[in-house]
Amino acid sequence: MKITAASHGGNYNELAKKHGLTKEMVLDFSANINPLGVPASLKQTITANLDQLVEYPEPDYLALRARIASFHQLDLANVIPGNGATELIFGIAKVTKAQKVLLLAPTFAEYERAFFDAEIVYAELTNETHFAAAKIVLATLERETDIDAVCLCNPNNPTGQLISQQEMVQIASLCEKRNIYLIIDEAFMDFLEDNETISMIPYLQQFPHLAIIRAFTKFFAIPGLRLGYLLTKNDLLAEALLQMREPWSINTFADLAGQILFDDTDYINQTYSWLSAEREFLYEGLTGFPELTVYRPSVNYIFFHLEKPLDLRKELLVKGIFIRSCANYRGLSENYYRVAVKSRDDNSQLLSALEVVFSGN
Ligand SMILES: Cc1ncc(COP(=O)(O)O)c(C=O)c1O
């Protein structure tokens, strides 16, 4: 069965309504968005530039691309901006025209929808290896000789598992040798403070078949604004992506956001200090429940397995807390869940609610 966009976990309105809860009454742990919210610097920029709405955005997005390029020490020509990471996932699926694609299972559902007319080969991740991906990807590549694109999510959503830079270089080398496009979705990578030692951005020059997708969405808490970008040193790929894009797909405010957000060091530093404290707090709290097997998180969400038969999402929803059931991810059963790391107050509420659920009250 093809997965539709409507089945994404963050869309809890319907379920909440069914239980007589309004959006305001529910603590949403299902969407992995930075709880610091929209950066003040962005609010100021948008307010100060409201009148720019009377003009079309600059069609080539030169200033935006230049800022992203300088942030990553690349050239403007290596940066293709998009209306969220999603537009670029669908864009690259189109331009590579891949007929046989390797995807992780489980992983983010949109790759499968983007490569809808390709044969999909799954690198099936298992709990026995803590959902580690590299070895399985390499083995699948060795076995399947006619793959023309590999699309990986690093860190993977929903498991949070990382493929190390060293492992990814091995995968990229094999892909390069066999003319296979390697697409890496690094939508959550910026939540890792030392992401330069994990991201494949430093290897773009070495691997012309490599394309990396990033998003402003999660880290800067702007899923409603829509801004992502793709990085590649492959001129043909970059040109094809630029040629096929619809004009003005990035709105004026998203264009401005991308030009200022990397300079908001206060927000960036606050995010790192919130995350290092709260991820540890929530992880420690969750591991304290014998009912749960919790996987060590790398970024701003935590993946776990419930060891007893219980509809945990429903149990928590009636207590005003919404978590992501991972039952609709390929390769996962209904006892897998994912929660976002939120503020201390919210994380404590989740832990208290779990305490009540598991003690049977
Ligand atoms: C791994 C991953 N990539 C991309 C996206 C989509 O990002 P955007 O909202 O920037 O299109 C998501 C959203 O959930 C995601 O989890």
CA(first)-CA(last) distance:
38 Å
- Distinct bound molecules: pyridoxal-5'-phosphate
Mean pLDDT: 95
Q: Proportion of β residues?
A: 15-25%
- CATH homologous superfamily caption of the largest domain: Type I PLP-dependent aspartate aminotransferase-like (Major domain)
CATH class of the largest domain: Alpha Beta
Total domain count: 2
The shape, in one word, is globular
Determine the CATH topology of the largest domain: Aspartate Aminotransferase, domain 2
Tally of DSSP β-strands: 13
**Sheet having the most strands:** 7 strands, mixed
Please identify the structural class as seen in this structure.
alpha/beta
Given the structure, what is the number of helices? 12
Structural description of this entry:
This protein has 361 residues and is α/β, with parallel strands linked by helices. The protein has 2 domains: 5-30 and 265-358, Alpha-Beta Complex (Aspartate Aminotransferase, domain 1), CATH 3.90.1150.10; 55-263, 3-Layer(aba) Sandwich (Aspartate Aminotransferase, domain 2). 36% of the residues lie in helices and 16% in strands. It is built from 12 helices and 13 strands. A 7-stranded mixed β-sheet has the order 2-8-7-6-5-3-4, with helices on both faces. Strands 9-10-13-12 form a 4-stranded antiparallel β-sheet, covered by helices on one side. A two-stranded parallel ribbon has the order 1-11. α5 links the parallel β3 (100-105) and β4 (119-124). α2 (40-48) crosses α9 (252-260), α6 (134-143) runs parallel beside α7 and α10 (265-287) runs parallel beside α12. The longest helix is centred in the C-terminal third of the chain and has 23 residues, at 265-287. Mean pLDDT is 95; it is low at 1-6. The protein binds pyridoxal-5'-phosphate (PLP). Pyridoxal-5'-phosphate (PLP) binds at residues 84-86, 108, 153, 157, 185, 187, 215, 217, 223, 228.
